[in-house]
Amino acid sequence: MGAFKAWVVEKTESGQSLSFRDFDDADLMDGDVTVRVTHSTLNYKDGLALTGRSPVVRRFPMIPGIDFAGTVESSGHSEYRAGDAVVLTGWGVGETHLGAYAQKARVKGDWLVPLPAGLSPEQAMAVGTAGYTAMLSLMALDAHGMTPSDGPALVTGASGGVGSVAVALLARAGWHVIASTGRAGEGDYLKGLGAAEILDRAELDKPGRPLGKERWAAAIDAVGSTTLANVLAMTKSDGAVAACGLAQGMDLPTSVAPFILRGVSLLGINSVTTPQKKRREAWARIARELDLGKLAAMTRTVGLEEVGTLGEDILAGHVRGRTVVTVG
Ligand code: NDP
Q1: Which of 45, 94, 100, 267 keeps 20 to 30 A from 30, CA to CA?
Q2: Is 133's C-beta closer than 6 angstroms to any atom of ligand 1?
Q3: Does residue 249 register a pLDDT over 90?
Q4: Is 201's C-beta closer than 6 angstroms to any atom of ligand 1?
Q5: Domain range list for the chain
Q6: Is the predicted pLDDT of residue 7 greater than 90, yes or no?
Q7: CATH 3.40.50.720 fits 129-268, yes or no
Q8: Which residue's CA is the closest to the ligand 1 atom numbered 7?
Q9: Which CATH class is domain 3-115+298-326?
Q10: Among candidate residues 198, 202, 163, 166, the one with its CA nearest the CA of residue 182
Q11: Cα–Cα distance between 240 and 287 in angstroms, integer?
Q12: pLDDT per residue over 297-306, tens digit each?
């Protein structure tokens, strides 16, 4: 038995509290693999869990943090042995199962993937759930048969985590990328990642017409709500939009017009319960296709003890690109 450092969310009468404290090994939940966590990240959903703004934490006490990279300490799973480098995203970790903002995690081996060849644990978490979701979105567009010759690809929430990786991946795949952002000062940053054009998000975030001028063939949308409705309304005939986020809202105030008059397809992306085969394919493609120089350019690093203050920042849209959390 031993104690380790962890961020812990507890239920209170007025909502929830957050503290950085010792957590006992014996209080970890069931799982056949125990991992020494070396890195985690900050995602939008982590912001919701840390602040309690949305009820993503559904078990108390909870260690938040939805993804980690680390080294197997002990394993009863046939695929993993002590010393193996592993990555975890999703599966309710940090929501219903004790999560990543801690020096130790115990999880089901079936949830893990081996650290992809070519990525360090730190780089894997610079990608994290956000970047892996960007890759799932690109894979959905590919599976739909979309190619750069069909026309431009739009990315919304482009300065955020999903958006930054999506811009880099689409540009690398040969797309003419239009990056939509509300941050006028991030134009050079987005062009550095491969964006060909910058679009002010004010052109997309207010109610618009059911159909507009056809401006892009494909899109990766991290924003949802009115923005997604406008993205659909301006997608070219037979185009496709991968919907993966809700930074503006959960609603979708659209009409059937883009679907029945232009044959536009809306492709849903869920990174949490992706089956193992697709998960590994996504990570292998990330290792092959994501420019590591661009990944470094979109990433900053913080210590585990700093995480508690970052939830509000990401929900306010103040965090650029990706944040790696180093767990000592
Ligand atoms: P970030 O906060 O890093 O990025 C979101 C970006 O959206 C912001 O940077 C901002 O970009 C833009 N934005 C924020 N608020 C608004 C608003 N009110 N209206 C319009 N645009 C806004 O978050 P992540 O990249 O980590 O996640 C993005 C979204 O994807 C989240 O909703 C998250 O929950 C979802 N997600 C879903 C997954 C899935 O499995 N489907 C997995 C991972 C994430 P800018 O300043 O450039 O305009």
Answers
A1: 45
A2: yes
A3: yes
A4: yes
A5: 3-115+298-326, 129-268
A6: yes
A7: yes
A8: 157
A9: alpha beta
A10: 202
A11: 25
A12: 999 999 999 9
